[in-house]
Amino acid sequence: MSPLILPDPDRGVTSRRNDIVKQLKRLVPEATLIADEEGCRTFESDALTAYRCLPLAVVLPSSTEEVSAILRFCHENHVKVVPRGAGTSLAGGALPLEDAVVLCLSRMNKVIEIDPSNRVARVEAGLTNIAITEAASKHGFFYAPDPSSQIACTVGGNIATNSGGAHCLKYGVTVNNLLGVRMVMMDGEVVEFGGKHLDAPGYDFLPLITGSEGQLGVVTEATVRLLAAPEGSKPILIGFDSTEAAASCVAAIIAAGIVPVAIEFMDRPAIHVCEHFVPAGYPLDAEAALIVEVEGSEDEIEYLLEKIEDIARDFLPTSLRRSQSPEETALIWKGRKAAFGAIGQISDYICMDGVIPLSQLPKALDEIGWICRKYRFDVANIFHAGDGNLHPLILYNANDSVQLERVELCGGEILKLCVELGGCLTGEHGVGIEKRELMYEQFTDEDIDQQVRIKEEFDPSWLLNPGKVFPIEGRDAQRMRSIELTDLGPEVEAGVDVAIEAELAEGHEVP
Amino acid sequence: MTGSMRLGFHAPETEEELAALVFEAAETRTPLEIMGKGTKRELGHPVGAGAVVSSEGISGISLYEPTELVMVAKAGTALAEIEAKLAENEQELPFEPVDLAPILGYAPGDGTIGGVIATNISGSRRILKGAARDHVLGIRAVNGRGEVIKAGGRVMKNVTGYDIGRTLAGSWGTLAMMTEISLKVLPAQRETRTILCFGLTDQTAVEALCIAMGTPYEVSGALHIHADLAARLSDEEIAGAENPVTAVRVENFPSSARYRANSLRQALLAYSPALELDGERSEAFWNDIRTLKMFQDKPNPLWRVSTAPTQAAKLVGNLSRKIDARVVYDWSGGLIWIETPPLTDAGAVDIRRQLAELGGHATLIRADDETRAGIDVFQPLEPQHAILSAKLKHAFDPLGIFNPGRMYRDM
Questions:
Q1: pLDDT of B213-263, one tens digit each?
Q2: Do B155 and A443 touch (CB under 8 A)?
Q3: Helix and strand tally (H, E) in chain B?
C-alpha cells in the first residue's frame, strides 16, 4: 500500500504516554478511558480500514464539561486530539494518530429535547442519526438527512462531513437542516452557535463548522430542524437498455418541473449483485435502472408517477414497475440500501464519492468504465443521480498489496475526472486522509491557503484532527506543494506500469 | 496610513481588475466600501471609507443548466435579470428573497444577486425551502489580501474543503467581495393558494401557524399581520377587513394545491378560516409581503427580529406595553418585522431587552443616518462570538480593508 504521510509524532508526547493517561484519568474520573493495546485496537481505524494507527489513548466522555476538561488539558500539554463518532467515515476522517487522544462521543447519545411546536430537536452529538427520527416520529416529524449508515453513524459525524443521503435532492444535506451547535474549542472553551431561530445574528458559523471534519472544534450538542412526515411515498423502478437513456430520463424528469424526493441510479453490475443479495425484482435484463421516489397524498403520488412514466416512455424503458404495496416499497429500498453490503460479500471494494454535473453523467460513466478497465478492475455504479453524487465501487482484492496500490491510483483518476467534468472530489464522505493529496486538483494555492487560515484562527497549534483534509499538514503545505505537483503525474504512470508488469509476470492477461 | 490609491467610486469589470484594486487598497491600507448597486447602502452602520467598490461591472449569467437546477451568475448581476431568466424556464429562486429596495427608496428588483447573498435575507418560503445561504453551491471572491479565492462548486453536494461560500452569505461584504455565485434553483410552483383567518390574537395566530407547519401539506408561507399593517396591503378585501390577518400558503401543481388547501382548512377549522385566495390574487398577496409593501409608505424605523416561533407573541406582547409597535410575523413566528415610532433609539433598548430574556436577535433594517450612527444596527455579539468573529474576519481580511464598521464598530 502507498505510504501515508502523517504529521511526525511528537516524541515529547508519546514518551509521556503513561503520565498523560494517568492525568486524564484523574481529570475526568467518570469518563471511560481506554489505554491498553487491545482496547485501543478497536479504534485503530474507521470504515476506511486500509489505514490503521494505534492512538495514544481513547477517552469516551459523557458530558460537554468532560469534553471541555479533556480538550483544555490536551491543549495545555500539546497533545493532539482526533474526534470520533461511530467511526463510519469512509475517508479516514477519524484515523487516529500515534501521539493523539481519540475523543469518542458515542456515550453522549441522549435526546435532550423534542420541541414539536418549534419543529426542532436538541440532541447530543453521539446520538445515531436514525434515533432523531425515532424520537420525533410520534409527533409526526422526521429528521431529513439519511446517510446509508444512518443506523450507526452519529449526528456529530454527520456534522463533521455534512452528510447527505438518498433523500437530499428534496430536503438538502446536514448544513441545511442544522440550526445550532454547542461546540468545545481546542482550548476547552464552550461556545453556543445558533439555536431555535432560523438565522444567525452576525457571521454564520454553522456552515463553516459543518463539513470541517472535526478540525475547528468538537461539537457536543446539536439543534436540528424537524420536518412534518409526508402522507405517503412510493417508488417506481425503471429499467433502460443504456446508461445514456437512464441519465437522459433523469434530466427530462427535472426539466418537466418535477423534483422527486429521490432518484437512485444502478448500473448492470450493481443491479445483478443487489438482486442476488435481496430479490427485489430489479430488472436483470437492463443496462441501468432508476429508482424514482415521490411523496404526498395518494392522488399526488399517482399524478406524479403517471407523469414520470410518460417521460420515461420517451427513453424506451425495458421495464416500468410502480410499487404496489408498502412491502414492495420496502423491498425495493432494501435492495438499494443493502447494495454496499451485497457487493462487500463478493469482493473487497473502495467506494468513491465524486460529484459531477448531471449533464456529464453518460460521459462520466463511460470514462469511469474505461479507467477501471485500464487498471483491470470491475466496477459497480450505484448512486444518487438527482444530485450527481457518484459512488463507483471498485472491486479488488485487499490481500494483494499490488492491487491495493493500483486501486488507489484508479480511484484517484476517477476523482480527477469528476473535477475535470466540473464537479468535485467528495460529495458527502469528506476529504479525510483519503483525498487530501488530491485537493490541488480542485483548488489553487490561494483557495487552500484561505481554508488553512481559518483553521489556524480556530486551532493555531494544529492539535485538532491534524493531517486530514489539507494536503499534508497545512502549515507545511507551502513547503511540500512543489514536490507534490511535479511528482504526481509520473508517479501515477509508473505505478500503473509496475502494476501491469506484475500482473503479466503472474501470467495474467492484460488488455 | 492612507497611501496613494485613488479614492471615489470604482466599478471594475473583471475579477482580475477587482483583485488588483483590492491588492492596491491593502498595500496602501485604504478602506473600501463594498456594494453591488448600493440599494442596501442605508442598511448597517455608515461605512467611513474614502473609496467605494461596486460589483455592478462584474455582471452576467455565466452558466444556467435548468435540468441540473443550477445557475452561476456574476455577483453584480441584477436580481431582476436572474429572476427573468429563471422564469423563462419556469424556475425560480426557492428562497424567495425579500426585496428591500422599495422600503429603502429604490426600485423593485434593483439589487444584485451578490447583495442578496451577502445579506442572506430570505423570504416567506424560507420555512419550507431554506435560506438564501442554503442555496449557495459555490463562490468566487476576492479576499482582503487581493487574492482570488473559490470554494464549493456548481454541484449539489460538496464537502471538499471548508464551506466558505455559505459562510460568506450574510457577512455583508466584510469578509471578502464575491465575484461569482453558483446557486441551486428549483422549478417554479405552478399554483399557489392562501388560506386566511381574521381576528386572531397574536398568541392564537402563532399557535395556528405552528399547527399548519406540523401538517404534511408543505406549507410555504405562515404569516400573521396586525390590522393597521394589513390595511396597507393591495388586496382591497383584506385591507378593508379592519382585522389582523393570518395567512397560510400552499403550493404545487394545481390539483395538489387544491387538495392541500382543503386539507389545511380542515386542520385549521378551530381558527375559522374565512377566505381562500388563489391564482393571481394569492400571488399578489405574497408579492406584497416579499416587497414589504406594508412598510413602503411610512419612513418609520423597521426591525427584523429572529426568534423561536413560540416566543414570538410573548416578545411582541411585552414590547407593546412599552412602545407602539406594528408587527408582521412571518416564518410561523420565527421572523418578526417590527415598525416602531421614530424614537431616538428606534426602540432598540426595549426590543433587545426582550430578546435577552426570550432568545433571538434583532437587526435595524431602516432608520435615518443619525439613528443608525447612535445604536447597534446588528445584534451586539456575546464576548465569545465577538472574539471568534474578529478571528474569522482576520482570516479573510487581516488588514480590515472591507466595509470597516459596517456590522460592528470595531471590526
A1: 999 999 999 999 999 999 999 999 999 999 999 999 999 999 999 999 999
A2: no
A3: 14, 18
How confident is the model over B16-44, as a mean pLDDT? 95
- In the predicted structure, residue A3 carries a pLDDT above the cut 70: no
Instruction: Look at residue B156 and tell me if it is in a domain.
Output: yes
CB atoms within 10 A of CB A332: 23
Is-contact A253 A236, C-beta < 8 A? no
B241 and B308 share a domain? Answer: no
Report yes or no on B12 lying in a domain. Answer: yes
Residues B351 and B205 in one domain: no
Q: Of B277, B252, B273, which Cα lies nearest the Cα of B264?
A: B273
- Chain B interface, mutation test: which of A189, A199, A446, most B Cβ atoms within 10 Å? A199
Residue A166 forms contact with B (CB below 8 Å): no
**CB within 8 Å of chain B, chain A residues 18-47:** none
What residues have CB less than 8 Å from B198, skipping those under 6 apart? Answer: B241, B243, B244, B245, B246, B272, B274, B275
CA distance A500 to A509: 9
CB contact under 8 A, B147 and A450: yes
Least Cα distance to B160 among A89, A487, A440, A486 occurs for A440
Q: Which of B133, B164, B188 delimits the end of a domain?
A: B188
What is the pTM for the complete model shown?
A: 0.94
Residue A104: which of A122, A119, A82 has the closest Cα?
A82
- Element of type H or E holding A495: helix A474-505
Which chain B residues are within 8 Å of A207, Cβ to Cβ?
133, 163, 165-167, 169
Measured CA angle at B313 (ends B307, B318), to 5 deg = 100
* pLDDT, tens digit, 9 for 90 and up, residues B353-400: 999 999 999 999 999 989 998 999 999 999 999 999 999 999 999 999
How confident is residue A148, by pLDDT bands cut at 50, 70 and 90?
A: confident
Mean pLDDT throughout B97-115? 93
B36 to chain A, minimum CA–CA distance in Å?
20
Question: Does the ipTM surpass 0.90?
Answer: yes
Q: Measured between alpha carbons, how far is A145 from A166 in angstroms, rounded to an integer?
A: 8
In this predicted structure, the answer to whether residue B301 has a pLDDT above a threshold of 90 is yes
Burial letters for B224-243: b for 16+ Cβ neighbours within 10 Å, e otherwise?
A: bbbeebbbbbebeebbebeb
Residues A335 and A421 in one domain: no
Distance CA B220, CA B107 (A): 26
Closest chain A residue to B89 measured between Cα atoms?
A255
Of A65-74, A284-293, A465-474, B388-397, which gets the smallest average pLDDT?
A465-474
Query: pLDDT confidence of A401, banded at 50, 70, 90?
Result: confident
Give me the number of domains chain B comprises: 3
The CATH number of residue A281's host domain is 3.30.70.3450
The answer to whether B150 contacts A443, with C-beta atoms less than 8 Å apart, is yes
Residues B45 and B178 in one domain: yes
Contact B25, B348 (CB under 8 A): no
Q: Of A82, A104, A126, which residue sits at a domain end?
A: A104
Residues 6+ apart with CB under 8 A from B137: B70, B152, B153, B154, B155, B156, B158, B165, B182, B183, B184
Residues A435/A213, Cβ–Cβ less than 8 Å:
no
CA B226/CA B311 separation, integer angstroms: 17
Q: What is the pLDDT of residue A474?
A: 47
What's the domain range around B312? 298-374
Name chain B contacts of A203, Cβ cutoff 8 Å.
167, 170-171, 175, 388-389, 392
Measured between beta carbons, the chain B residues lying within 8 angstroms of A164 are 157
Instruction: State the Cα–Cα distance between residues A177 and A116, nearest whole angstrom.
Output: 15
For residue A27, give its domain range: 11-104
pLDDT of residue B409: 87
- Residues 421-440 on A with a CB inside 8 Å of B are 422-431, 435, 439
Q: Are residues A253 and A274 in the same domain?
A: yes
